[in-house]
Write a structure and sequence with these properties.
- With 872 residues, the protein is mainly beta.
- Among the domains are: 43-138, no CATH class; 164-234, Immunoglobulin-like (Sandwich); 602-869, Rossmann fold (3-Layer(aba) Sandwich).
- Helices cover 13% and strands 33% of the residues.
- The strands form 12 sheets. An 8-stranded mixed beta sheet has the order 41-42-44-43-45-46-47-48, with helices on both faces.
- The chain is globular and about 85 Å long.
- It starts with 42 loop residues before the first strand and ends with a helix.
């Protein structure tokens, strides 16, 4: 787990200096308060017996001290990797100067397989240590082997305070990639691009995070810089995701760009499928002779492969069709049948933006991009089956897949007797695995998942084909909780439910077909703990042998030993720094405690962690979870206005659960606000009933639960002033921030809404139809902030980037239009050249802080402003 330290520079907690300020705050300038021993990076190696059962790690302590620890899993012991004092003495003699045991010039280790020597890797100089005599000699030859940084897929903020180092960014793909540095708030800072085959050395600091993205913003790699210079290589490897044919747990395969181009040639090499005009032809490879298989295709119903371009419109990225039309076909293994996708193009909508202030010219520029919105016609691809020997089509009824949102993952059985595919119905109330008989063309459902509300295909989908045993593992909420089921892939019979109970499967990490086990992450599986805490588990295919591998009362991340016999479990809470333990992967029992993070320096300087708080929701029964952030210098005898950082997007839950030493809103808290975050009904990761509150009801945003939660918190903590409550958010959170003012003006008095999707008819098709349904009904208008704008009573700040390509900025401007028509006062900032989230920029944050100080405190001095500096 990576957890974030205070940034050495750029984090200013400055007092509000006016008499109208409610509280006097401490002034923190250039703080350097750290949390130590929080990160554990294991380096596994084999012992003298050749078994990889040992690992070492380095921890950094206060005053720049560092320690190297060795863990022997067989003995269940941890100890110093070597005698630090003896090594310091030996190094001092070798280099001719004093060396402190806690400040060794060593960044990494390499243990010899015989256990007799140890290679010490420094910054530019390496040594070999004899572990018996502690004699030390310079390493011969190369300083060290090429060090490749591990790539992950989950962006996270940079950690500040690391030493200077270097990362070499390497692009081994055949397409250009974009490079970003993620700052300590996790915001992306562009660092140019890399052309195919290009590499670039980048000065950085240990703990800084570098993000590489590809076409359409697809994440290709996330790299954490280490003290040892390393390579950040993007080469198409996908090990960080896991996966496997037929498996998708990351948004139904929609987040990684267009699918790979299918093979058009038959497995036996005799035939090739080609497109002439818009019809499908069969070409004999040896002679070049072509035979038409279809005659009725046309531009509106074509076999020419267009899914890449149409998917680009759906997912909002640019692409180009190949010059030569190609079919999208899947051949049977015996080369006697093929399935070709026939395409009906969808709406070719584009969003147009005017860039008012381009950097390279005086005059504005017109920009546009493909962008489907709710109700638009989506491109429809349907499979057509052909008999190669007979040169004819075998009719397949589309009664089971007549109205697709998507048809994906087409795959043939090994014996060529049938093919299957995944059908996602428009409106997302039916999700089916359909099998088609290769001889008759008869289609029947193998799995038929249906819901009266929605099936959360974008966040709760998992399908793993077990070809060897003829089974499928399938994820479903049919019993009210997100669980796994084992199907007979031939008959469609549910053999058994693999997991069950009033808890949810959050993610499948691994399917072990040899041992017939599933390794997965769960929420709510430990009674008495926050149901959002993630625990790691294993269960047999038949539902027996459920083993919870993690235990501590917090949310967990794990890493396994190379042989998966051991697991390093790191867990924390927002109010508990990370704890790392070594546990057995067979039974989950603790082998030994490894590390406990030290936050004493941070806490001694006045910082207090958020407090988890639980209260009943709107029904008086359901527990609602949130956190309370109190400002530095908090006085429980005083009254503080509250501000809610809101994001009620139904795709996830958003209240932080793990430890962080820095939050982006601390400059706002420094003004004298208590900040809260709450996950109300309608968000994910609880029961199906809890989630369904959002259905055709995004204006609800869990407000009845949020307000009940805040009232309960204020009843316990009278310092929370319920007469002065504000809220802010961006994107869907921007919609929520304004929605709170419009639907609950009796409670929320001020709101700052950035880049909001204020009318769900104006926003991207896949996100909004997932929750608001299809076809577009009256609920869209009823939930629109444009429709509700006339209800505005409180103070409002709207911000938007004029070049936002995530949420159409016209959505904000239509709210502006409605507010003007209703003769309502509000504030508006449009960011020239700004993209999505511009309200979170340095300027936007300062203006937002000013807005809340003015609206809820009666003060508008800005941290760092001339007036504040002068004490006026």
């Amino acid at each position: 787990m990576s957890l974030w330290l205070f940034q050495r520079i750029g984090v200013f907690l400055v007092a509000s200096l006016t008499a109208a300020s409610v509280v006097a705050q401490n002034v923190w300038t250039n703080p350097a308060f750290h949390v130590y021993r929080e990160k554990l990076d294991p380096h596994w190696f084999a012992g003298t017996d050749g078994i990889t059962n040992k690992f070492w790690y380095r921890v950094d302590g206060s005053k720049d001290m560092r320690e190297f620890t060795l863990v022997d899993t067989g003995e269940g012991k941890r100890a110093a990797a070597f005698d630090h004092s003896r090594l310091a003495e030996a190094l001092g003699k070798l280099i001719g100067g004093p060396v402190e045991a806690g400040h060794l010039p060593v960044v990494s280790l390499e243990f010899a397989s015989d256990g007799k020597t140890l290679k010490l890797i420094g910054r530019g100089t390496n040594w070999v240590l004899d572990l018996k005599s502690y004699s030390l000699t310079p390493a011969q030859g190369e300083a060290s082997s090429e060090f490749r940084l591990p790539a992950t897929r989950r962006p996270h903020p940079s950690r500040a305070g690391g030493v200077e180092t270097e990362v070499e960014l390497v692009n081994r793909l055949d397409a250009e990639v974009s490079v970003f540095w993620l700052d300590t708030d996790g915001k992306r800072i562009a660092y140019g691009s890399l052309k195919p085959g290009e590499s670039r050395k980048q000065h950085t600091f240990a703990g800084h995070v570098w993000l590489i993205t590809g076409q359409g913003g697809a994440i290709l790699g996330v790299f954490d810089a280490e003290e040892q210079p390393g390579l950040a290589v993007v080469d198409g490897r996908d090990a960080a995701r896991g996966g496997g044919r037929g498996r998708r747990g990351d948004g139904a395969g929609r987040n990684g760009g267009p699918p790979a181009r299918p093979e058009t040639q038959s497995p036996d090499g005799k035939w090739d499928a080609v497109v002439r005009g818009h019809n499908l032809y069969l070409r004999e490879v040896s002679s070049g002779k072509e035979t038409p298989l279809t005659f009725d295709a046309n531009p509106n119903s074509t076999y020419a492969r267009g899914s890449e371009a149409d998917r680009a419109i759906e997912m909002n990225y640019e692409t180009h069709d190949p010059e030569t039309p190609m079919p999208e076909v899947t051949w049977s293994p015996d080369s006697r049948k093929l399935v070709a996708m026939r395409l009906r193009p969808g709406t070719q909508r584009r969003v147009y933006l005017v860039q008012s202030s381009p950097e390279d010219q005086v005059q504005p520029k017109l920009d546009s991009y493909p962008y489907l919105k709710p109700g638009d016609d989506v491109p429809i691809r349907k499979p057509h089956l052909f008999d190669v020997e007979a040169r004819k089509e075998i009719p397949v009824s589309d009664a089971l897949f007549s109205n697709p949102w998507s048809i994906e993952d087409l795959r043939w059985d090994k014996d060529s007797s049938r093919f299957t595919f995944l059908f996602n119905q428009r409106g997302h109330q039916a999700l089916r695995v359909i099998a088609v008989d290769a001889r008759s063309g008869e289609a029947k459902p193998i799995i038929d998942e249906q819901s009266k509300t929605f099936i959360c295909y974008s966040g709760k989908f998992f399908c793993e084909y077990l070809d060897a045993s003829g089974e499928i593992i399938w994820m479903s909420e049919r019993d009210g909780w997100n669980h796994l089921y084992l199907y007979d892939a031939r008959t469609g019979e549910v053999k058994n439910q693999i997991t069950h109970g009033e808890w949810v499967v959050r993610k499948v990490d691994r399917v072990d077909t040899d041992k017939r086990q599933v390794w997965f992450q769960a929420g709510g599986i430990r009674p008495g703990q926050d149901p959002y805490y993630i625990h790691y588990c294993r269960v047999n295919f038949d539902g027996s042998g459920l083993t919870i591998l993690t235990e501590g009362d917090g949310t967990h991340t794990v890493s396994f030993s190379p042989d998966r016999r051991y697991v390093i479990d790191t867990w924390s809470r927002v109010n508990l720094p990370p704890v790392s333990e070594l546990r057995g992967a067979e039974d989950g029992k603790q082998v030994c405690r490894l590390e406990e993070a030290d936050a004493s320096e941070l806490l001694a300087n006045g910082w207090t962690p958020p407090e988890p708080f639980v209260a009943k929701g709107r029904d008086g029964v359901t527990d609602i979870y949130g956190v309370i952030h109190r400002p530095v210098g908090f006085d429980p005898a005083k009254k503080y206005p509250m501000i809610e950082d809101i994001y009620a997007g139904p795709q996830d839950s958003f209240v932080p659960k793990s430890w962080r030493a820095h939050y982006g809103w601390e400059s706002l808290m420094a003004r004298g606000f208590i900040l809260v975050q709450v996950d109300g009904m309608g968000t994910a990761n609880r029961s199906k009933k809890f989630h369904d509150v959002c259905y055709k009801n995004l204006a609800d945003a869990g407000f009845p639960d949020r307000i009940a939660w805040m009232k309960a918190a204020a009843a316990k903590y009278p310092a929370m002033d319920l007469t002065r409550v504000g809220l802010y958010g961006g994107s869907a959170g921007g919609q929520n921030a304004l929605g709170g003012l419009l639907t609950h003006p009796e409670f929320y008095k001020a709101g700052a809404a950035d880049c909001g999707c204020h009318d769900n008819r104006m926003d991207k098709i896949w996100w909004n139809e997932q929750w608001m349904g299809w076809p577009v009904g009256p609920e869209y208008e009823q939930c629109s902030n444009v429709t509700l704008a006339h209800n505005l009573q409180g103070k409002l700040l709207l911000t938007v980037g004029e070049m936002d390509k995530n949420v159409d900025p016209a959505s904000t401007m239509q709210v502006v239009n409605a507010l003007i028509k209703a003769d309502k006062d509000f504030e508006l900032i449009v960011f020239p050249n700004g993209g999505h989230g511009s309200g979170g920029s340095r300027y936007g944050e300062r203006r937002r802080n000013d807005f809340f100080a003015r609206s809820l405190l009666g003060s508008e001095l800005s941290p760092g402003s001339a007036e504040a500096a002068a004490g006026r």
